[in-house]
Write a structure and sequence with these properties.
The protein has 231 residues and is α+β, with helices and mostly antiparallel strands. 17% of the residues lie in helices and 41% in strands. A hairpin with a 2-residue loop joins β6 and β7. It is elongated.
Length: 231
């Protein structure tokens, strides 16, 4: 009886030791290197599956990683398609295409998408304006762009993004000056998750200058912007 008890005890201890060794071996930590550079964090291989700290890896690759608790979503953007470093003056977004961006405004962060659906100038623009604006002064013309702007996620649930006159600005192709937009309503519209903006944004510009660029940016950040080609 004692021999059987001793044998059983030995087998139990042996099994526990083996299991401990297996788990230890299976969860050996690995250092991380992204694009040749060491980054903080540790990778593990468990049962043949590799686990890495995703945020550290994404940021090490130059991307952005955002947790959106309200929608139970993790948003990952490549740096080459985000607001800062994506569509530039030499590589602008064209009508009909969509860009994804990130905007930091105050203490809020927004992830969204934008596209230009249509452009109108001259008499066609006046038909859209109707009685909301007077005729353009001599030497000037209206340029209107129909924009689809959508917030896909925000760090603070329920926050909204205002579309004021400096959200979209027209870059004069000759003088390179920025021309603020105007809205078609008395109050600046705003958008939030589930409530996109799909409407016209207008500019009053000198005649002959309408083949330019429109930028989308944060009003207090005039250096970083998403550039869009107006044709």
């Amino acid at each position: 009886m004692n021999k059987k008890l001793m044998l059983s005890s030995f087998l139990i201890i042996f099994s526990v030791v083996c299991l401990s060794i297996t788990v230890f071996a299976a969860t050996t930590g690995y250092s991380l290197r992204v694009n040749g550079a060491d980054i903080k964090g540790e990778a593990k291989v468990i049962d043949g599956v590799t686990y890495v700290p995703l945020r550290k890896v994404i940021e090490g690759l130059g991307g952005s990683y955002h947790v959106m608790p309200e929608s139970n979503t993790i948003s990952i953007l490549r740096r080459d398609i985000s607001m800062y470093g994506g569509y530039t003056e030499s590589n602008p977004l064209h009508s009909g295409s969509k860009a994804y961006f990130e905007l930091n405004e105050g203490f809020d962060k927004f992830i969204g998408s934008v596209s230009i659906e249509e452009t109108s100038t001259g008499k066609d623009a006046l038909k859209i304006l109707q009685a909301k604006k007077e005729a353009a002064p001599s030497g000037y013309t209206y340029v209107l762009i129909k924009v689809n702007l959508e917030i896909l996620g925000s760090e603070k649930p329920g926050t909204s993004l205002s579309i004021n006159n400096y959200r979209f600005e027209y870059i004069n192709s000759v003088t390179l000056k920025r021309i603020p937009s105007f809205m078609f309503s008395k109050y600046s519209p705003s958008l939030s998750e589930g409530k996109p903006f799909n409407g016209w944004v207008g500019f009053l510009i000198p005649e002959g200058h309408q083949s330019g660029m429109v930028v989308l940016s944060t009003p207090d950040d005039r250096q970083n912007a998403l550039w869009m080609k107006v044709q």
